[in-house]
Design a protein that fits this description.
Length: 163
């Protein structure tokens, strides 16, 4: 008998969580997330300048690395983006929206990023790109370590508020 009551209680809690997910309006969050990534992206004029330099000297390996680093590391928000795996999770009594935004870089390659937004303010607290060529383009150990540190911090935050 107690097992049935416990099972009913667990199902009731699960139903409440599922009900909240079904009725959350993710459309309110999406523009704020796009705007966040728009402000974080590099200046598109820089990519045009690097393209021009590379067109003049196609064998310039340093310019090629710089172009890959600067033009292939961020979402180009002027191109269409999609959102997937979006869900709401309560952590310590506060709601968070966790999800993935995907699109293209300025070089036209696919890229995505996991994000965490604090609700109801749609404030993006953390993000992690699927890849980050800028960290490795120069061969600078400091940039690589900094990138790894950022990924670690995001993973810890994600585990805390999205799991």
């Amino acid at each position: 008998m107690k097992t049935k009551q416990l099972l009913l209680f667990v199902l009731f809690i699960f139903a409440q969580c599922t009900h909240a997910q079904e009725h959350y309006n993710f459309e309110d969050v999406k523009p704020a997330v796009v705007e966040f990534f728009k402000h974080g992206a590099g200046n598109p004029d820089g990519c045009d300048m690097l393209r021009e330099q590379l067109a003049k000297n196609p064998k310039d390996e340093q310019t090629r690395k710089m172009m890959t680093g600067f033009c292939d590391s961020d979402l180009d928000t002027t191109k269409p983006v999609t959102f997937t795996e979006m869900f709401v999770h309560d952590s310590e009594g506060h709601p968070f929206v966790c999800g993935i935004i995907s699109g293209q870089t300025q070089l036209g390659r696919k890229i995505g990023a996991r994000f965490i937004a604090a609700e109801p303010y749609h404030l993006v607290l953390g993000f992690k790109y699927s890849r980050r060529p800028i960290a490795y383009a120069t061969g600078d150990g400091f940039l690589v370590d900094e990138y790894r540190s950022q990924v670690k911090a995001f993973n810890e935050l994600y585990a805390k508020v999205c799991s």
